Amino acid sequence: MNDKDFYFLRSEKDGEDLVGKIATVSKLSIPLGWTIGILQYINLYNAKTYSQMTKICFRSALNTFFVGVAYAASTYYVARYRHEDDEFNHIIGGLGASIATGIVCKSGQAGVAAAVIFPALGYFHKKKLTTNDQVRIKHYLMSTKNRFNCSFAKNKNLTGNWTNVPTS
């Protein structure tokens, strides 16, 4: 094995390789899992010692870390397979994270609920709304005011001919 084969995971720019994605996910998911563990310790368990609390918090942090790693690995390998960086990669990453959620929670219902929520979160994580997108959404909502019968559309500054909605 030569050096090029050994370091193939670090070939992209910082944060876009597998190790960078996992490091980023761990910075976010481990504190979240520890916080969830503290809430479980306070509300659900009757733990008496700090070692029991540490065990509960560590288990929860490890579970959220596994879900984050599943998301990072799924997005990385789908992007590597498709050779594209678009929203579809993050949707597949959300599905991978939902499978990990079902396994970690030992519940098919939690996995199905996560399969509904996580792909949408992954899509919107990649597709950050710019100001132009927000303006287009506002104009679309205003153009359909008769269909929705919005009360805020009765303002005289917002009424008018919205058939020529600007696209940029």
UniProtKB/TrEMBL annotation:
Localization per Swiss-Prot or TrEMBL: Mitochondrion inner membrane
Query: What processes does the entry annotate via GO biological process terms?
Result: mitochondrial electron transport, NADH to ubiquinone
- Per the record, what is one GO cellular component? respiratory chain complex I
- The source's superkingdom equals Eukaryota
Membrane topology for this entry? Multi-pass membrane protein
The protein's UniProt keywords, in alphabetical order, are: Membrane, Mitochondrion, Mitochondrion inner membrane, Transmembrane, Transmembrane helix, Ubiquinone
Q: Could you list the residue ranges that cross the membrane?
A: 28-44, 56-79, 91-124
Coarsely, its chief localization is mitochondrion
Question: Which family does the entry's similarity section mention?
Answer: Belongs to the complex I NDUFA11 subunit family.
Q: What is this protein called?
A: NADH dehydrogenase [ubiquinone] 1 alpha subcomplex subunit 11
